[in-house]
Prior knowledge:
Elements lengths: L23 E2 L5 E4 L5 H9 L1 H7 L6 H16 L4 E6 L7 E9 L4 E8 L8 H17 L3 E7 L3 H9 L3 E12 L2 E11 L4
Parallel strand pairs: 5-6
Antiparallel strand pairs: 1-2, 2-3, 3-4, 4-5, 6-8, 7-8
The structure holds coenzyme A.
Coenzyme A binds next to helix 2, strand 5, helix 4 and helix 5.
Amino acid sequence: xxxxxxxPPVVPAxxxxxxxxxxxxxxxxLELRPWQPADAESLxxxxxxxxxxxxxxxxxxxxxxxxxxxxxxxxxxxAEQGAIWAIARPGEVAIGLIGWxxxxxxxxxxxILYWVLPAARGGGVVVAATERxxxxxxxxxGLHRLRLRHSVANAASCRVAEKAxxxxxxxxxxxxxxADGWHDMHxxxxxxxxx
Length: 195
Ligand SMILES: CC(C)(COP(=O)(O)OP(=O)(O)OC[C@H]1O[C@@H](n2cnc3c(N)ncnc32)[C@H](O)[C@@H]1OP(=O)(O)O)[C@@H](O)C(=O)NCCC(=O)NCCS
C-alpha cells in the first residue's frame, strides 16, 4: 500500500474563506443567517439570562462589547476557525445563536454550540437548527465528525442532542468549570454516514 504523507486535509483550506456564509431556511418561517451589528442587543439580553450564563459560560456587558464579538464572528469565518449563525425571522433581530467552534478543516471536525432566548424555547427550534447545520457541515462543508458537549446536568441540551441524531459516546469527567464548580460533560457525536 502506498502511504501518502502528510495526509491530505479532510476539507481543503479556503472552502469557507472563499465563500460567503450562507443563509439557511428553517421550518416555521425562521432562518439561519450571519450575525449583524443590529443584533448586538440580543447578545446582551442573552448574557443576562441565567440559563445561558450557566450553560454557555457566556457574558457580554455592553452593546459595544457585543458589536466587537459580532465582528469577531465574521473574522473567525474568514479564518476558517468558527461559523456562527443567528436564528431569526427574516428582517428581525436574533432570537438565538447556533454554530461551529473549533473548526478543524485539516482533521475534519468541529463542535456545535447553541442557545435560544427564553421566549423562543419549547418549540423545537434548536433541534431543527442543529439538524440543518449538521447537514450543512457534513454535506456542504465536508467535515467528517461533529461533536456536541453539554453538562450532564443540562437535560434539555441532552434531549436536543438525541433528537438531532447525535450518539452519546460517553462522559467526560469533571471536564468543564462552571460558575458552581466542575461539571461532568456528555460527549455526543454525529459522523459522516450517520444521517
Ligand atoms: C437547551 C436549549 C437550546 C433547548 O432549546 P429548547 O427550545 O428549549 O428545546 P426544544 O423545545 O427543542 O426541546 C428539546 C427537547 O428538550 C426537552 N426539554 C426541554 N427542557 C427540558 C428540561 N429542563 N429537562 C428535560 N428535557 C427538557 C423538551 O421537552 C424537548 O424534548 P421533547 O420534544 O421530547 O419533548 C434551550 O433550552 C436553551 O437555550 N437553554 C439555555 C442555554 C443552554 O442550555 N445552551 C446549551 C449549552 S450545551
